[in-house]
Amino acid sequence: MRHEYEVTDSCILQPKLISVSKYVTFFNPKAPLYPRLALGKSWDIMTVTWTSGYNIDEAVPFVEWGWKGQEQKRSPAGTLTFHRNSMCGSPARTVGWRDPGFIHTSFLKDLWPNVEYTYKLGHLLSNGSVVMSKQYSFKSPPFPGQESLQRIVIFGDMGKQERDGSNEYADYQHGSLITTDTLINDLDNIDAVFLIGDLPYANGYISQWDQFTSQVEPIASRVPFMIASGNHERTWENSGSLYNGLDSGGECGVPAETLYYVPAENRAKFWYAADYGMFHFCIADTEHDWREGSEQYKFIEQCFASANRHKQPWLIFAAHRVLGYSSNDWYAKEGSFEEPMGREHLQKLWQKYKVDMAFFGHVHNYERVCPIYQNQCVNKETSHYSGVVNGTIHVVVGGGGSHLSQFTSLNTRWSVFKDYDWGFVKLTAFNQSSLLFEYKKSKDGKVYDSFTISRDYKDVLACVHDGCEPTTLAN
Ligand SMILES: [Fe+2]
């Protein structure tokens, strides 16, 4: 039964009954929901993850898919879930707990590059009947190194918000729907999205994961939706997270690593590589040790080293907390202008492998930093970069929707552009020599900061400080 209340004087404590609707039931409470795409471990695999109420003893999950307008085939899906005792503490383990249902992932393999595919989620019931979702579509990734128009959106710290404006617990991500709607409006011009940590801010209230996943479904069901792990996904005391806070509300990473696929070797350790045409992405996990000598440090170096810069010239690093540079006020008060120890450990790698850009969230604003190495800007240009790659451009893009973060009033000499608003970055690779960077505000989708990079392969190979290959005088 559904009641409708009139709320007067904004007082939700004294609602007044104004009408009673007819009895409302779900057509199928177990129906497959919220398809979300992610790149697989190889460029020619697309993964589809969804949620349903069907366990494997009740129905066989599958995806029916194929070229748009052509014969569709079926691929199997694996099924995962998690239980209350997988949560590390309260509220996730107590008042915030809600059964997440069943999470299915299918691997659509042997994709042809740049082809429009259609797909449906399905469950084959034991009585022989089939439950199917509506039809969705995606475009397969380009072959690695292939030149075509390739457009990537990156941002962090999104959150969720009720579309009807109703109150909810932890209601502080008021930009979330604005970002969501702006991305949906431009979806025909976006090939993949990277949300680099702090997704729903469920903070142990598990139902908010479904709310978030429903909100982003129009995006995630059409383009690969690649996530990173943030403190609000992972951090919990005495649970193996690098930081010792309570930010995940007891989730300790379990909902994130189960509800969203990432092409990691171990999804509990959220670092992975991803190829998209001329881009090579190395996504790090700031909630696990990244410092020199750690397992993750080795991965980061291997990921950078595995990019053939002739074929994949655009090498991108991303992580949740700011391991590079930020003029955010709390980092300024600490005097570090970063998460402590971040760049001290990683700048050698960014420099050695000539990483083009490093993206971070966690700080809820936008800031672009000059091409930088060891706290020094190595290039005075701000709108067009060309020639030798002699420093990494650092970008904080954590204005995905959560409450905004203040900048320090100090004048940081490496800061090129700051914006206290919600927004996201869009990278457009036109070919192997030409890249466009744009920062867009969520409120209007317009560009407020941008630059271009033009260069040839020899510019990536060229020797720079702390980034020279060994040579010998012998011929
Ligand atoms: Fe964060």
UniProtKB/TrEMBL annotation:
InterPro entries membership: Calcineurin-like_PHP, Metallo-depent_PP-like, MPP_PAP, PAPs_C, PAPs_N, Purple_acid_Pase-like_N
Enzyme class: hydrolase
Keywords linked to the UniProt accession: Glycoprotein, Hydrolase, Secreted, Signal, Zinc
Pfam families per record: Metallophos, Metallophos_C, Pur_ac_phosph_N
Catalytic reaction equation(s): a phosphate monoester + H2O = an alcohol + phosphate
Its EC number(s): 3.1.3.2
Residue span(s) of domain Purple acid phosphatase N-terminal: 35-139
Cofactor: Zn(2+); Fe cation
Domain Purple acid phosphatase C-terminal, chain residue ranges per copy: 391-450
Gene3D superfamilies linked: 3.60.21.10, Purple acid phosphatase-like, N-terminal
Domain Calcineurin-like phosphoesterase: start-end pairs: 151-366
Compartment(s): Secreted
Family, per entry: Belongs to the metallophosphoesterase superfamily. Purple acid phosphatase family.
Subunit structure: Homodimer.
UniProt protein name: Purple acid phosphatase
Organism: Solanum pennellii
Gene assigned in the entry: LOC107025454
